[in-house]
Design brief:
alpha+beta; 4-stranded antiparallel beta sheet; 4 strands; globular; Putative NADH dehydrogenase/NAD(P)H nitroreductase J2W36_001889
Length: 196
């Protein structure tokens, strides 16, 4: 049975969590990255399709491969982040459905319509990326998601010859509080929601 989280947990995940623009030198272990993924993968996706794919860029050599694709304003914070996650989605995610959703021929739902496959993969892959950010926060990391990069360059450098394509990028590590911007406003319930 689901129970409400306490105020401290909600602060960690939402109310006090901030998008990070700078990082401390504290490293992030591969074991912790595995824990982040193992937690994030438990979030729901339609028909358990799980189209997201993640490249954890953590070596200087891999960072240099990513650097030419970054917008100028994103270079420093990405190059100094302990880990940069290239969040991608697999265009042929449906090939995994016989194992992921064995109680129906779910693969056939997508092989006949490239449009449905694309929409499903993009939507659910983005959802899984949000789970990854929350999982990282839940396990003591900070996150800095961003979309300032050249998609074609990332795909060419990291996904050439594969069925993966980049969605966005997330820096992970321990944030430098002095580099955080002031909290920006959010839309009020009545501005963003209706009750039907």
């Amino acid at each position: 049975m689901t129970q409400a989280l306490d105020a401290a947990a909600l602060a960690t995940l939402f109310t006090e969590a901030r998008s990070q623009n700078g990082w401390t030198p504290e490293p992030v272990s591969d074991d912790l990255l595995r824990q982040v993924y193992d937690l994030a993968r438990m979030g729901p996706t339609s028909a358990n399709c799980s189209p997201a794919r993640f490249v954890f860029v953590r070596t200087p050599e891999a960072k240099e491969r990513l650097k030419p694709a970054l917008s100028a304003s994103n270079v420093d914070k990405t190059m100094t982040a302990p880990v940069t996650v290239i969040v991608a989605w697999d265009k042929t995610f449906y090939d995994k459905l016989p194992a992921l959703f064995p109680h129906a021929d779910a693969r056939a739902w997508f092989t006949g319509s490239p449009e449905v496959a694309h929409e499903t993969a993009f939507r659910n892959g983005t959802l899984q990326a949000a789970y990854l950010i929350l999982a990282a926060r839940a396990l003591g990391l900070d996150a800095g998601p961003m979309s300032g990069f050249d998609k074609a360059k990332v795909d060419a450098e990291f996904f050439d010859g594969t069925t993966w394509t980049v969605n966005f990028i997330v820096n992970l590590g321990h944030g430098d509080a002095s580099k955080v911007f002031g909290r920006l406003p959010r839309l009020a319930f009545d501005e963003a929601c209706t009750l039907a």
